[in-house]
Specification:
The longest helix is centred in the middle third of the chain and has 20 residues. Helix 5 packs across helix 8. This protein is 36% helix and 13% strand. It contains 14 helices and 10 strands. By secondary structure, the protein is of the alpha/beta class. Strands 1, 2, 3, 4, 5, 6, 7, 8, 9 and 10 form a 10-stranded mixed β-sheet that branches. This is Lysosomal Pro-X carboxypeptidase. Cleaves C-terminal amino acids linked to proline in peptides such as angiotensin II, III and des-Arg9-bradykinin. This cleavage occurs at acidic pH, but enzymatic activity is retained with some substrates at neutral pH. It catalyses: Cleavage of a -Pro-|-Xaa bond to release a C-terminal amino acid.
Amino acid sequence: MILSGMGGATVRAALSAVLGILVIAGCDCSQRYTYEIKEFQVPLDHFSFLINETFNIRYLYNDSFVDKSNDRTPIFFYTGNEGDIELFAQNTGFLWEQAERQRALVIFAEHRYYGKSLPFGSSTFNTSMPEHLAYFTVEQALEDYAMLITFLRNDRQLPVVAFGGSYGGMLAAWFRMKYPHLVAGALAASAPILQFSGITDCDIFYKIVTSVFENAYNKNCSANIAKSWKLFETLGASEAGKKQISDAFHLCNALKTDEDLKKFLNYVEEVYTNLAMVNYPYNSSFLAPLPAYPVRQVCYYLKELQTTDASLLHAMSSALAVYTNYTQSAKCLDISVNSNADESGWDIQSCNQMVMPICSNSSETMFRTSSWNFKDYAEKCYKNYRLTPKPYDIILRYGGRNLEATSNIIFSNGLLDPWSGGGVLQTPNDKVFVIILPEGAHHLDLRHTDPADPPSVRDARDKEAAIIARWIQDF
């Protein structure tokens, strides 16, 4: 166990430091964008006066842009989300570019329970110890970040701008809402803070994914995908058919049972949603190594409407290989791993507060029909983690659509991003900025500047930079 008594001592920080070199695809940044990997001690439970255990969260630190003569140095603070913090540092080039421009201190903070910031070490996710998951909440993570900022400011009044994308964007927005005395403003890119029960229709996500595929090449692409589900289910009904699927997709572990088939279908479904999210205009490796506009590449193999089972199976195998083996380095397909993100931690969060309903209708999308059934969902959460999800907890704490009192937040959303359906698309007042990117995928504006960026993305970054500069100036 990595816990230690905190007692009444002042928080200890920077317990260790390691030099890291940032590699951003398409950017010659390695000399400018290096960082130290540090650790910071936080309470296991910020909200108890009886529990005194502590553990360490990691953060990345770069002060190479800082003007030492400036006593109001800005802090650009990335609110880490569901994964190793170095992954997000490698995919948030806009923060680095603006930090260089504004002479800011750069901090990427790792979210508790992700990466190496594990409160109970190797037993953090031990299913026989569900009590270990009690401190895995948005509020505990935000309090970690608040303590870290307080330490970094060291009694100085320094402007802090929070940055985040996706769940990290949600955290950045909520961080500004809950700690306005610490955070001058926040850029919340592709932050679906409205993707909760009673606010956003559960079917909007898959409708947007389908639209992305329909418009990538031609509508035969989504039509073939829609037909493939029945093919997979028909083949999967027999042992010979399961082998046919396993061989066609070069599965590492052949399908043997109906549960195996279910896992395969869920995997394929998630591949399509991931492709829509990272449909960037250049090669990338955020979720997987991919070519530019990967959805278009997938749909190239599906541009002809397939009329036989054999041709459809072959076309689907070729299409999915764009995501699963673009580099052609994989000898087989492991369907237990879908992306570089930490899905195990997110599965747990979605069973406490982050209950974001998703459903689909096969008559309106290219996906199988699936309903949202909270009772079944809650039973599965309790079975897996002994957790009882609270579907309205986030709305209670952060207001849902009631954002009238909010200020100094940029909500940016790309209309090619499936999560934009749960994003803030209309501003509640003149201090909240809504920026729409018609040609943007998932938090594309947070990524590094690239010659292939569409005009709407370049325009969005210019607007964001001007707003952030104004926040710093007005601080």
